[in-house]
Amino acid sequence: MYIPKSIKKKHKSIYFQSEQGFSVNSKEKEEKALKDKCKVIAVANQKGGVGKTTTAVNLGVALGLAGKKVLLVDADPQGSLSQGCNIGNPDALETTLSELMSYEMTGEDKDYLLINNAIKQFETVDLIPSNISLSGTETALFNCMSRESVLKRTLEPLKDKYDVILIDCMPSLGMMTINALVAADSVIIPCDPSYLSVKGLDLLLHSIAKVKRQINPDLKIDGVLLTMVDFRTVNARDITGALRDAMGNNINVFNIEIPRSVRATECPNAGESIFVHDPKGKVADAYAILAKEVIGLERKAQVRSRSDSVR
What is the CATH number assigned to the segment(s) 5-310? Predict the structure, then answer.
């Protein structure tokens, strides 16, 4: 299996653990700040069909089942996340992410009634849906001041209500995806075990590195998540092994691999997460383990932040 050399040798400056400490007056305040801090995670890959939306929904629900307060944000005009969360016709919604971002672009004071109207409930999580109007919002961003941070400013008043905000990005490296990377503390990169998917990682890693260098210096990569893995095929085993070897110690590859499953593909049509549609299946088990890995990364980051602030 060929892995581009640029993936093997570059991107060493992108880490998947937070290195930012808190300047506080006491240990108690510091620990409370770390505990209460909302983590914003972008689920991103410019290649379509790699399981971004499936991961956003099921990781969000798994984190909710683990006791976290979770907000899902659909940042894709196709509205796939919204439909997967049992919103049958997103285009009929009056208030979506598009309206919230448009309101932010006008520079007006926050309208909390508008924000509350946008938030929908789905199983163990909350959701800000999207529809085709987000395409127009993305176009309008090009004429907006501080256009890369509109989504960040839109989500800011919600961060004190949630432990985790998961942003499902569109399959491109356009302005909405840049907004998601600027708003995020970290990135999870779903990647199916195919040659084209793995080869396309290089472009995404370059984009993340550019955002980190120019706009969001605290941006980290939580890890690459292998999805739709068919453990029966030699090709899948070869690609996953090659990818882990190529990333080495520079970028985390999650230990858990999400298996390919017909039951998982049925979930969007049913408007259910895998934990409702097939709670005892192997995909539900895998996403529950992924949630534990994500929580474990955050705990390690908190420990590092505490130790850094003591120095």
Answer: 3.40.50.300
